[in-house]
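Consider the tokenized backbone below.
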């Protein structure tokens, strides 16, 4: 064997050793802090149901209105292609019915399937890695207690090299650390419970933390906001101007439970789903813990700061005449014809508090991202006994019309020079 071959062999061996070392899993069981809704003394299925809701599994693994819970097929459109969620029912052929406890725990906490292939981080194993083995197995027990559904997993639509699952090992080496949740002894039991709910079960950072060029989380700006699948997940740090620092604890809890706080926000899109499927079911004790944790974090202005215009539009029982001409004319006409009856000309949403526009970050965001998506997709949520509904106008309006309407809404109710273009709408429509 010549020297070049020996050298190449040594490089490969060193590379393989480094690969294995950097992907080493934490095999410890881990322990969870006290979660009021899932005490260790509770029946395992009751614990599993609560934890499954707290982890918001249904939102990613159930196609809306399909009546096939946890059967997968939800599309995640990312910069490098589309990933479809998998069937996690107990079906032995199409789902995970044949998976052992160890295989399920490895998939949830390490992102590795039962066949040894890597999962993509659209599945938030980067957060779930902090879960205790006991909590993961309670979730498995609950899922296996539900009807098994024979539904084929849809193939991902990823271009080369992103379709090479083995390469995820290198991504994990760079951006993932296998580790269990470790309580902070200097903090209260409530704070530690909130930290576990936010960082492990609720995986808040997966949507609200910006990502770097490698699509890894930018931990230097935790929860400072990012755009995901065309929706803005806003800054939820305690920054008093750009985050939720000016909100009271009661307002924060009310928003997380109901998706609405007057003059603050109305949830829609992925956040609306998080409230509808997960957050509204937290016990009062767990909600208080989650809020306490969020309010304790360092404030961060974020990369795309949004200031709220505190000057409400003047009350108007009828359409304001001055808006009927000029650059805002088409947006005015569309708002008058389809929106004013629910949202009102002063944005008060008198018929439903969820229709209130004034004070929300959506209408104060000059990019109009969430306003555009709400127009295109509408809102359809069940929150407690309330049914929150706004029709989708994506099929009724052209890209140019949606842009005109979004710009009018942001200009009138946020006092901002909106910048939405027809091209922006076309790109968000495709997501």
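A designed sequence for it:
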């Amino acid at each position: 064997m010549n020297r070049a071959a020996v050298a190449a062999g040594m490089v490969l061996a060193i590379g393989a050793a480094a690969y294995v070392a950097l992907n080493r899993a934490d095999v410890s069981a881990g322990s969870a802090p006290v979660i009021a809704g899932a005490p260790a003394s509770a029946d395992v299925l009751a614990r599993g149901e609560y934890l499954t809701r707290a982890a918001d599994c249904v939102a990613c693994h159930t196609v809306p209105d399909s009546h096939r819970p946890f059967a997968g097929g939800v599309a995640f459109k990312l910069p490098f292609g589309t990933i479809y969620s998998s069937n996690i029912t107990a079906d032995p052929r199409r789902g995970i019915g044949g998976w052992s406890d160890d295989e399920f725990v490895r998939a949830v906490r390490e992102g590795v399937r039962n066949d040894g292939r890597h999962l993509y981080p659209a599945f938030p194993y980067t957060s779930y890695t902090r879960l205790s083995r006991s909590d993961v197995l309670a979730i498995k027990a609950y899922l296996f207690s539900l009807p098994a559904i024979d539904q084929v997993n849809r193939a991902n639509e990823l271009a080369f090299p992103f379709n090479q699952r083995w390469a995820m090992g290198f991504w994990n080496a760079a951006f993932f650390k296998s580790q269990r949740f470790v309580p902070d002894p200097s903090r209260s039991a409530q704070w530690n419970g909130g930290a576990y709910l936010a960082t492990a079960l609720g995986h808040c950072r997966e949507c609200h933390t910006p990502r770097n060029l490698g699509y890894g989380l930018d931990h230097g700006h935790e929860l400072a906001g990012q755009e995901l699948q065309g929706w803005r997940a806003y800054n939820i740090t305690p920054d008093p101007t750009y985050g939720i620092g000016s909100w009271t604890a009661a307002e924060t809890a009310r928003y997380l439970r109901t998706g609405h706080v007057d003059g603050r926000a109305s949830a829609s899109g992925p956040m609306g789903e998080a409230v509808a499927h997960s957050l509204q079911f937290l016990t009062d004790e767990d909600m208080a813990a989650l809020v306490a944790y969020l309010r304790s974090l360092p404030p961060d202005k974020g990369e795309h700061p949004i200031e709220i215009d505190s000057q409400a539009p003047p009350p108007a029982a009828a359409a304001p005449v001055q808006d009927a001409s000029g650059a805002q004319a088409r947006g005015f006409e569309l708002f008058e014809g389809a929106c004013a009856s629910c949202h009102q000309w002063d944005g008060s949403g008198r018929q439903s508090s969820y229709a209130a526009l004034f004070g929300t970050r959506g209408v104060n965001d000059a990019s109009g991202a969430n306003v555009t998506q709400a127009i295109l997709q509408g809102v359809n949520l069940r929150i407690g006994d309330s049914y929150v509904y706004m029709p989708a106008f994506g099929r009724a309006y052209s890209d140019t019309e949606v842009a005109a309407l979004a710009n009018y809404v942001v200009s009138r109710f946020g006092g901002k020079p909106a910048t939405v273009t027809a091209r922006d709408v076309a790109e968000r429509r495709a997501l």
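The chain has a mean pLDDT of 91.
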